[in-house]
Amino acid sequence: LWGKMLNVEKARIDKVIGNDKLTPIVTSLGTGIGDEFDITKLRYDKIILMADADVDGAHIRTLLLTFFFRYMRPLIETGHVYIAQPPLYKISKGKKFAYAYSDEERDQEIENFGGNCDIQRYKGLGEMDPEQLWETTMDPKTRIMLRVNLEDAMEADETFSILMGDQVEPRREFIQKNAKYVQNLDV
Q: Residues 8-17: contacts with CB within 8 Å, 24+ apart?
């Protein structure tokens, strides 16, 4: 996928069906959407959402989860939707290296290596060479994936409805309540 995803929260069904980002997803999955959805026509066992490990990537994942929740919910209910977890850092010292998925893991790996390490911060999947992308995010033997459950999707949908909806007061309350938890904001 490329560019900005459609906010299905505010879109009419004809806009969803005709969207240049969502139509290829629906076509490749083979299931149709909404009332036409038929899970027996699903062409894949796993639908893996792979996006950058930053705020923009989180936004893309939320948009896609909202789409699946609204129009293809059985994919989530039957455990077909996963989120790939790319690393944020590569820590290396000499020929040894490790990947870290949080600032805490980065600090622990630096300590494990005895300090004085080279640290590479991945701002996006495009910064990895093909071997690193395969090893960290695509190889079934080493990748980390989270299965999306209905509660995750419902929470994402509720959050998305608050943040992208027309009601200002719930959005302001959400931001005031959660702003103190932001630790790594890429702006």
A: 8/63, 8/66, 8/67, 8/70, 8/71, 9/66, 9/70, 9/160, 9/161, 9/164, 9/165, 10/164, 10/165, 16/67, 16/71
Does residue 152 or residue 11 have the better pLDDT?
A: 11
Query: 119-174 pLDDT, tens per residue?
Result: 999 888 888 889 989 988 899 998 889 898 888 767 777 776 777 667 778 777 77
User: Is residue 181 scored above 50 in pLDDT?
Assistant: no
Burial of residue 109, with CB atoms counted within 10 A of its CB: 0-12 exposed, 13-18 middle, 19 or more buried: buried
Burial of 31 per CB tally in 10 Å (0-12, 13-18, 19+): buried
| Interatomic CA distance for residues 127 and 38, integer angstroms | 38
Q: Is residue 103 within 8 Å of residue 176, measured between CB atoms? A: no
pTM: 0.76
